Amino acid sequence: MERVCLDCGTPIKGRSDKKFCDDQCRSNYNNRLKVEDLSFVRQVNHTLKKNRDILQKLNPTGKTKVNRDKLLKQGFDLNYHTHVYQTQKGTTYYFCYEYGYLLLNEQEVLLVKREEGAEGLKH
Fold first, then answer.
1. 16 within some domain
2. How many domains does the structure of the chain reveal?
3. Could you give the CA distance from residue 60 to residue 123 in angstroms, rounded to a whole number?
4. How far apart (Å, rounded) are the C-alpha atoms in residues 91 and 74?
5. What confidence score (pLDDT) does residue 4 get?
6. DSSP E strands: which ranges in 1-123?
7. Residue 108 backbone dihedrals phi, psi, to 5 degrees
8. Domain presence at residue 122
9. Taking all residues of the chain, what is their mean pLDDT, rounded to a whole number?
10. Which of 24, 40, 71, 75 is 20 to 30 A off residue 59, Cα-Cα?
């Protein structure tokens, strides 16, 4: 079976474990992988920042209730958060950095803000 360069597809001669025909192809291939990885990371970071901005905008006082549809209509994505906080009673808060939310029911969402350096939530 003929081996081909992973970047350009030309036949490879030489060692049996060789994957690229030259250094340029190796660099091209690895740079392309890096760009694809960075693109995904940029997309996730953009979504997290957008979620945080929406939570901040809708929660100027540090604690408030909003309608779930209001969050979603602004482009909030419930699938993205930076961390989860679970209380001793088993209540789960989802956070985008210092701003978090608790799904109360199908319609209502409690928005909270974690205070700087605080272990708990702002009440």
1. no
2. 1
3. 14
4. 25
5. 93
6. 63-67, 83-86, 92-96, 99-103, 108-113
7. -105, 145
8. no
9. 90
10. 40
Q: Which amino acid is at 11?
A: P
User: CA nearest 64: which of 102, 115, 119, 105?
Assistant: 102
Question: Does residue 81 lie within any of the structural domains?
Answer: yes
Question: 18: which 2 tokens?
Answer: 């060789």
Residue 119 has pLDDT above 90, yes or no: no
* Length of the chain as a residue count: 123
- The answer to whether the beta carbons of residues 84 and 25 sit under 8 Å apart is no
Using alpha carbons, select from 103, 94, 104, 105 the residue that is nearest to residue 114.
94
The verdict on pTM exceeding 0.85 is no
**pLDDT band at 123, cuts 50/70/90?**
very low
92 close to 85: Cβ distance less than 8 angstroms: yes
**What tokens appear for 40 in the block?**
């995904």
